[in-house]
Predict the structure.
Amino acid sequence: MIELHGIHKSYVTKYETLPVLKGLGMTIKQGEMVSIMGASGSGKSTLLNILGLLDRFDDGDYLVDGKSVKGLNDDERAMLRNRKFGFVFQSANLIPQMDLLDNVILPLTYRNMPEREIREKGMVMLERFGLANWRRHYPNELSGGQKQRVAIARAIITEPEIILADEPTGQLDSKSTASVMDILSEINQGMGATLILVTHELAVARRAPRIIHIKDGIICSEES
Ligand code: ADP
Ligand code: MG
């Protein structure tokens, strides 16, 4: 379970201080699927980055499984991030010099696991996403939808409890959007992973039983 309490976050630049989150609170239970909507610039990515421990907040508290992240040092934050979270972004961010199998297994290569076991896991992932025959291909040979499927495979190969997806279908056509959403829903329902999905497409957001709307740095409404 993750809980935010009164989260404040501003960006400080040379010229100004821009308050983005202004006392935002939410609770998301393990296994939930939640969509987050809000205008461009409303702080959705900022919120996901805080949830995924990619960025820090200024005030308030963030509890993961009942424990505040405030006291953690950089190493402890990185450990919690790698163990707990999987990330999917708008662009797949695959590594162009690596073939698909190497891209998918990348997060596991930082773990103390035998090479053969890692590659087997990678193949299972690619098979599951209908990309096994593509394992020796490079990202630039794939369609946008295929790339995003590889990115999702890479995000879940560590079996994270929580998937954070920031506009994962933002660059996809409607057919690829449907297939990526089917995969994400299946990861939520089949694997029991929590799925937190930022999107500005209402049809995509509605795949989740709960929709949170952000405005002016706080949650302005919730539907479920
Ligand atoms: P969203 O994802 O909802 O479009 P963001 O969280 O990316 O919004 O950004 C919220 C606001 O904070 C925007 O006005 C954006 O320009 C600003 N912002 C985001 N990241 C930074 C940063 N690293 N430095 C300064 N301003 C930022
Ligand atoms: Mg964003």
About this structure: The chain is about 35% helix and 30% strand. Residues 30-43+75-223 form a domain with the Rossmann fold fold (CATH 3.40.50.300). Residues 11, 13, 18, 20, 38, 40-46 surround adenosine-5'-diphosphate (ligand 1) (CB under 6 Å). The beta strands are 2-12, 17-28, 33-37, 59-64, 67-68, 85-88, 162-166, 194-198, 210-215, 218-223.
